[in-house]
Design goal:
The structure is a homodimer. Chain A has 6 helices and no strands. The C terminus of chain A is likely disordered. By secondary structure, the first copy, chain A, is mostly helical. At the A-B interface, α2, α3, α5 and α6 of A face α2, α3, α5 and α6 of B.
């Protein structure tokens, strides 16, 4: 029998719902930050990019609130196994979302630099990557909020698409730099920008794993998809 | 009065100590992974780098154990405020250490590529950055394990050194690439390698903040030092 009467139970459930609401708000904000960054990139709008950088503190504040909420929850009473898993997952998940927003802000900083340089063609491919990341993020949040393990698995598998896009883009950018050294600065910033988007996919994958564990009580047993292979790319090995 | 007798209290303390031991082991392993990577970089030893990549699963396994240990702790009884903070900090801290090891493994992958290419001079500067990161990591772990807020503050402030090294290195690498396109591939991988080391400094800073909060009960009030400014570097803006 749990300690505390039904009154404590009810207030615990209410606090647990508050945590879920906070996470929903956080994921909405992280997603909005990424979308604003992609628009700023397409429209070469540095004011909008600067706004994303400035707004990152809002996500940080939400993460702190979520963390405090988890502490409040855990201090209420010894939670039952499922509730405990909800609370601890909430804590980890808000950390992932904070890092998603961090990655978006890093992208926004690079957009501000890119806007000072002549436009380079691979920007379009990077933006495409970005929209795929938005989709994965949206899907995995819905999976978490609706407690849907199957939907989480779909995101988990689809992260490979993002990794593939990133790997081919990395190669393309290197070639671009080799062809014309005037592209070096822009392409370097684009590489980091793309890497940040690829990282957002990793966070979505982590959230998918957490959701799966939360719903089913056991970790995903499938083999984890291969991650990006760009770190071992040597496109010009013949030339060096 | 806390729920549960002194027997429960004792077992709680024992479990809390187990968590601390796990974190000590994790930080030792993460540090060893980074050191092995730096040695592999200096000695161009791809076998050692491959070993670091392979050993990353060990840190992941320790993180899972730490996470389970926290769950076990929280299920024991409603913890008192200080114990609760210890448990939740342990969870977050093990996540940071897992990411430190992740960064080290990413570096090791790049080292394996660099070893296939002619050596470039900036490798030495990147290794210097790496040793500073090792120092910060060691210091902040000691601060956490010895419950020393002042020592944590020292690490927190010193991360700026790492950011400065990184920013000047980023500029140097761009110049290197512009001077001779044959350096492009190696310098690109070095940039990502340096970025990973800079990230390790960020994790050390996060651990410093957690330690400070754990010991004092309130967050660091000082202004956070400026982070790396490389994302806004345009060294060749005159040339493009």
């Amino acid at each position: 029998m749990a300690i505390g009467g039904s009154h404590t139970m009810k207030s615990f459930d209410a606090e647990l719902n508050k945590l879920k609401d906070m996470i929903a708000r956080m994921s909405g904000l992280a997603e909005a930050q990424l979308i604003a960054t992609l628009q700023a990139m397409t429209e070469r709008d540095s004011d909008q990019a600067a706004q994303v950088v400035a707004d990152d503190v809002k996500v940080d504040a939400l993460e702190r609130q979520a963390s405090e909420q988890v502490m409040r929850l855990l201090a209420l009473r010894t939670p039952l196994a499922d509730d405990l898993r909800m609370a601890v997952t909430g804590l980890k998940l808000s950390g992932e979302l904070e890092r998603v927003a961090d990655n978006a802000a890093s992208c926004a900083k690079r957009v501000m630099v890119l806007n000072q340089l002549p436009s380079v063609a691979p920007v379009r491919a990077v933006t495409r990557m970005g929209w795929l990341a938005v989709e994965l993020l949206k899907e995995v949040t819905d999976a978490y909020l609706s407690h849907d393990a199957e939907r989480a698995m779909v995101v988990w598998r689809r992260d490979q698409e993002l990794d593939d896009l990133y790997s081919s883009l990395f190669r393309e950018l290197l070639t671009y730099m080799l062809e014309d050294p005037r592209n070096i600065t822009a392409c370097t910033h684009l590489m980091f920008l793309a890497k940040n988007i690829e990282r957002i996919g990793d966070h979505a994958t982590n959230i998918a794993e957490m959701t799966y564990f939360l719903v089913t009580g056991h970790p995903i047993s499938e083999q984890r998809p291969k991650r990006d292979v760009s770190s071992s790319t040597v496109p010009n090995s013949d030339e060096t």
